[in-house]
C-alpha cells in the first residue's frame, strides 16, 4: 500500500492556504487510499524566534484542527513530531549526507533568513538545517508520496536527493519519495498582496483567512481582497494575480475549474461575493467539529498518544537500518543474567 507522509508546523494559526494546499487532500483522498501519516511538526517551529507557550498552544490547536478537518485516527496516524525520537535521530545522519551548499540554496531559508535579520534577530542554525529534518520526517516513514503545497516542493526534492545519495553510498535504505500537488490552489496568495503566499507566520492579518475566522470576518477579508486594475474577470497569474487568486480559491472550494469560472463573472464584486460564501461553507464543518473537539481534550490527547506509538513502530526499523548502513555499531546487548544471580 502506498505510504503517504505530510505535516504542518505550529508557527501560527492554520490558514485557508494550509487547508486548500494540503490538509483537504489528506482528509478527502489520502487517508482513504493509502497508509497515511500526518504530523504536527513542532520541532520545526523552533527554527525562528518563538514563544514556548505559544508553540504549545498552537501544537494543540493544530492537532485539534487536523482532526476537525476530517482526519480519522481509524484510517490514518496523527501525532506530534517531538513525541517520536526517530525524526531527530535520522536527521543527524542525513546532515552527514547533505552539503552546506545545498542548504544555502533553499529558497525558504534565503527568504526567512533575510526576514529574521531585518527584524534585528539572529538566524538560528536550525533554520539552515531545517530541510534535513524535513527529509528525515519523510524518509523515516518510507513515504512514497508527500502531499504538500507548491512552496514545499523544493524541500521534498531535497529529500529525494538525500535518499538517492544515501542509498548509493550505503546500500538501499530509503524509499525515494515524490511530491504530490493539488489540482488548483497549490499556492494560495495573500489577499492583500497577491504576489506573495498566504503564510500563517506572516503578520498581515487582513490578507490571511484563518481556519477559525468567524464567517463575517472571512466575508470582510475576501470582499476587501486587492484586485487588479481593469474590470473583466480574466485568469492570468502574471497580469491579474488578485483575480486569479480568487478564482483559484473559488475553484478549490467548489471543485470547479478556475479558467471556466472566469467566463462566468462580469464583475469583481460578484466574484468576491461567491468566493466569500464558498470559503465560509468550506470552513463551516471544520469549525463546528473544532468546537466539539475543544470540549473533549482527552480524546485529542488519546489520539496523539496512540498516534505516536504507531509512528514510532513504523519509523524505528528504517532508522535503525540507516544507523547500521552508515557504519554505526548496534548497541551491545545486556549479558543474559545467569539463573540464581
Ligand atoms: P507549513 O506548515 O508551512 O504548511 C503546511 C502545508 O500547507 C501548505 N501551504 C500552502 N498551500 C497552498 N497555499 C498556501 N498559501 C500554503 N501555505 C502553506 C504547505 O505547502 C504544506 O504542505 N516544512 C513544512 C512542514 C513539514 C513537512 C514535513 C511537510 C515538515 N516536515 C514533511 C511534509 C513532509 C512546512 O513548513 O509546512
Automatic annotation (TrEMBL):
L-tryptophan binds at residue 137. Keywords: Aminoacyl-tRNA synthetase, ATP-binding, Cytoplasm, Ligase, Nucleotide-binding, Protein biosynthesis. Its EC number is 6.1.1.2. One of its GO terms (biological process) is tryptophanyl-tRNA aminoacylation. Its main location: cytoplasm. One of its GO terms (cellular component) is cytosol. A motif ('HIGH' region) lies at residues 10-18. SUPFAM superfamilies: Nucleotidylyl transferase (SSF52374). InterPro entries: aa-tRNA-synth_I_CS, aa-tRNA-synth_Ic, Rossmann-like_a/b/a_fold, Trp-tRNA-ligase, Trp-tRNA-ligase_bac-type, Trp-tRNA_synthetase. One of its GO terms (molecular function) is tryptophan-tRNA ligase activity. It is found in: Cytoplasm. ATP binds at residues 9-11, 17-18, 149-151, 188, 197-201. A motif ('KMSKS' region) lies at residues 197-201. It holds the Pfam family tRNA-synt_1b. It is an enzyme of class 6 (ligase). PROSITE patterns: AA_TRNA_LIGASE_I. It catalyses: tRNA(Trp) + L-tryptophan + ATP = L-tryptophyl-tRNA(Trp) + AMP + diphosphate + H(+). Belongs to the class-I aminoacyl-tRNA synthetase family. Homodimer. Catalyzes the attachment of tryptophan to tRNA(Trp). This is Tryptophan--tRNA ligase. The lineage of its organism: Bacteria, Bacillati, Actinomycetota, Actinomycetes, Kitasatosporales.
Amino acid at each position: 500500500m502506498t505510504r503517504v507522509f505530510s505535516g504542518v508546523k505550529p508557527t501560527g494559526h492554520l490558514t485557508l492556504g494550509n487547508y486548500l494546499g494540503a490538509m483537504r487532500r489528506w482528509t478527502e483522498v489520502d487517508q482513504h487510499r493509502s497508509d497515511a501519516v500526518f504530523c504536527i511538526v513542532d520541532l520545526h517551529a523552533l527554527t525562528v524566534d518563538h514563544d514556548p507557550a505559544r508553540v504549545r498552544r498552537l501544537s494543540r490547536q493544530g492537532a485539534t484542527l487536523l482532526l476537525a478537518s476530517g482526519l480519522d485516527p481509524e484510517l490514518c496516524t496523527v501525532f506530534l513530531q517531538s513525541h517520536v525520537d526517530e525524526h531527530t535521530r535520522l536527521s543527524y545522519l542525513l546532515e552527514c549526507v547533505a552539503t552546506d551548499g545545498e542548504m544555502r540554496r533553499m529558497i525558504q531559508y534565503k527568504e526567512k533568513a533575510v526576514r529574521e535579520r531585518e527584524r534585528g534577530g539572529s538566524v538560528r542554525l536550525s533554520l539552515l538545517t531545517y530541510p534535513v529534518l524535513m527529509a528525515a520526517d519523510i524518509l523515516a516513514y518510507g513515504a512514497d508520496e508527500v502531499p504538500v503545497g507548491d512552496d514545499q516542493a523544493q524541500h521534498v526534492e531535497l529529500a529525494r536527493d538525500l535518499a538517492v545519495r544515501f542509498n548509493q553510498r550505503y546500500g538501499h535504505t530509503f524509499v525515494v519519495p515524490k511530491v504530490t500537488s493539488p489540482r488548483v490552489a497549490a499556492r494560495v496568495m495573500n489577499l492583500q498582496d497577491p504576489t506573495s503566499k498566504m503564510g500563517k507566520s506572516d503578520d498581515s492579518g487582513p490578507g490571511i483567512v484563518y481556519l477559525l475566522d468567524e464567517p463575517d470576518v472571512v466575508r470582510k477579508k475576501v470582499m476587501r481582497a486587492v484586485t487588479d486594475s481593469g474590470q473583466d474577470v480574466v485568469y492570468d497569474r502574471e497580469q491579474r494575480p488578485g483575480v486569479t487568486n480568487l478564482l483559484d480559491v473559488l475553484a478549490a472550494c467548489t471543485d470547479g475549474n478556475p479558467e471556466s469560472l472566469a467566463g462566468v463573472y462580469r464583475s469583481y464584486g460578484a466574484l468576491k461575493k461567491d468566493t466569500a460564501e464558498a470559503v465560509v461553507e468550506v470552513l463551516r464543518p471544520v469549525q463546528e467539529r473544532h468546537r466539539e473537539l475543544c470540549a473533549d481534550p482527552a480524546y485529542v490527547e488519546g489520539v496523539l498518544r496512540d498516534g505516536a506509538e504507531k509512528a514510532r513502530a513504523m519509523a524505528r526499523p528504517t532508522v535503525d537500518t540507516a544507523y547500521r548502513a552508515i557504519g554505526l555499531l548496534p548497541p551491545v546487548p545486556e549479558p543474559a543474567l545467569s539463573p540464581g544471580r
